[in-house]
Amino acid sequence: MSTEQIHEIRLNVNGVDHEAAVPARRLLSDALRHDLGLTGTHVGCEHGVCGACTVLVDGQPTRSCLMFAVSAVGSEITTVEGLARPDGELGPVQQAFRECHGLQCGFCTPGFLTTITAGIAENPDPTEEEARDMVAGNLCRCTGYQNIVKAVCRAAEIAREGGDAL
C-alpha cells in the first residue's frame, strides 16, 4: 500500500481543462500520456536530452520529462495534438513536415513539431542556419536533419503566406 500523497490538479492542455489525481512526483510527460490519454508526447531518454517529450508550456518549448505535473498547474500546455488548426487541418509545421518529408520513423517528430512551432513564433523568417539552430536540441536517429531544416523554412513560409499565428 502506497502512502504517497495524491494531488488533485487541473491542467489546461490544448485549450481544454483536464482534472487528474497524481502523486507529487508524477512527470508532466507521464500525466499527459497516462492520466490524460494524450499519447502524442513521446518519452525517449527520460533525461531531457533527446527532445522527444517537448511540449509548449506558456508558449515555450519544455521537456515534459523534466517537469512535474503539479508544476504545470496554471500554465497553458500545448502538445502535438494541439498543433492542428481548429478545423482539423494540419498546422503550418505539420504541413511542412509532410511536404518536405521531415520524418521517417516519427518517434522524434512530436518534439520537433512543438519546438519548431515555438521557434517560428519567435523568428518567423529563419535562415537555414537559424533553422538548424532552432532544432539543435532535438535528436533524430533517422533523417540526417536535412529535410527537417527544409521543413522549418517551409513552415515559416506557409505561416507567413497564410497569416497563421503559431
Automatic annotation (TrEMBL):
InterPro entries, sorted: 2Fe-2S-bd (IPR002888), 2Fe-2S-bd_dom_sf (IPR036884), 2Fe-2S_ferredoxin-like_sf (IPR036010), 2Fe-2S_ferredoxin-type (IPR001041), 2Fe2S_fd_BS (IPR006058), Beta-grasp_dom_sf (IPR012675), Diverse_Oxidoreductases (IPR051452)
Secretion signal, residue range per the UniProt entry: none
Any one Pfam family match given in the protein's UniProt record, by short name: Fer2
UniProt keywords, alphabetically: 2Fe-2S, Iron, Iron-sulfur, Metal-binding, Oxidoreductase
Residues forming coiled coils: none
Domain 2Fe-2S ferredoxin-type: 7-83
PANTHER family: OXIDOREDUCTASE WITH IRON-SULFUR SUBUNIT (PTHR44379)
Protein name: (2Fe-2S)-binding protein
Origin organism lineage: Bacteria, Bacillati, Actinomycetota, Actinomycetes, Propionibacteriales
